Amino acid sequence: MELFRLTIHELRDLIRKGEVSPVEVVKSYLGRVAAVEGRVQAFNVVTGQEALRAAERYRAIQVKGGPLPALAGIPLAVKDVICTQGVPTTCSSRMLERFVPPYSATVMDRLTAAGAVVLGKTNMDEFAMGSSTENSAFKTTRNPWDLACVPGGSSGGSAAAVAADMCAGALGTDTGGSIRQPGGFCGIAALKPTYGRVSRYGLVAFASSLDQIGPMTKDVRDAAILLGTIAGHDPADSTSADVPVPDYERALTGDLRGLKIGMPAEYFIAGMEPEVDAAVRDAVTTLEGLGAARVEVGLPHTEYAVAAYYLVATAEASSNLGRYDGVRYGYRTPKSEHLIDMYMKSRDEGFGPEVKRRIMLGTYALSAGYYDAYYLKALKVRTLIRRDFTQAFERCDVLVTPTSPTAAFRIGERTGDPLQIYLTDVFTSSANLAGVPGISVNCGFTATGLPIGLQILGKPFDEATILKAAHAYEQATPWGTRRPTL
After folding, report:
1. Within 259-301, where are the H helices?
2. Which end of the chain is more exposed for a tag (fewer CB within 10 A), N or C?
């Protein structure tokens, strides 16, 4: 049995029964990493020895018949934007290339308390700014389904690691689609929780009013398990919501009778690949066959979402990234003539082109004379988009849309046109502006064998319903069981 092929819940059950040991599981995954990482390039750092030491501790408890934590010995990967004590957190940037956090993020503390074992930190677009993982300062991660294609971004390393069976699950972050879009490109289950559902303490900030940490897994049940582990109020995060966390795994009943699904016309647009359109429409038909009822809804301000998102996100990025000045921490140029020269050269040499582009966009939008015309107007549009979702959810329980207008594109195909890259978030960024939860699951393949993502959006703090719908669809279709051949 190849243990690295198994899901979190399958491994959890085998370890609980004593049929396999945590050490066997971790060694199986580390062997898989050694076999395919050279081609996929998903990890910035692999913490194999630390993972084995943790697995040994759980094996000792297992041998003695002692109680094991819920995720004892389960090998996970973590996006390299989440702080891990004693392990580099680089954000795939030269600016933080040597940064080793003195503390761990709250989500890491919760995973550790549950017994999870971290195999390493995954590659990403620098400071989470990108949709293809081509903006990393260190490497270009490749899509396991086609190594000539991107895995999506910015959580492309986590998505590729899960799809390639190099970890049982992973954490990503989603600011405008950076969990769901790579999840769709790589054919895995990828969930962005409601803003405030999961603590952001220890997450290196890109856009603080948009960022959320969430699970990326081989199937929907695993996403429910990981979300239940990391969710919940955190006094260390002022934006963390004090809302009870339900048993997400128990919500996976498979019963969709009475569920109302909305299919907004604004998400089925000209320019979308016909194969994507057809696969998503077929998925809606499948959901109806499982007992759900389709209702007509509209999200009329969707056409303004990408523009509003790239104003809000870049403005917040401009503010957040102002702290990287070469003085307090991060990269400092070895050659400067005076203080201002040191600031300018440190930032010029430490940040990559896309990060600089977004800092400049955000600084411009916040500058005197332009604030009202750009940033303030974007905030007003954000309110209208949030209102659209509130009104739509008065008529339905979930919204069903494509995750992205296309399947994965080829590496280098869009690097010369940033606008084309930005438009890959056209179906995902609205959820971040509104703060609602969303999940992407595989709903088919293109003729060339690339996965197609189905997005299911839900009401604030109603992750249980989108997980139930996604799980029922996954169980009724063959798409989730297919794995890439490497």
Report:
1. 274-289
2. N
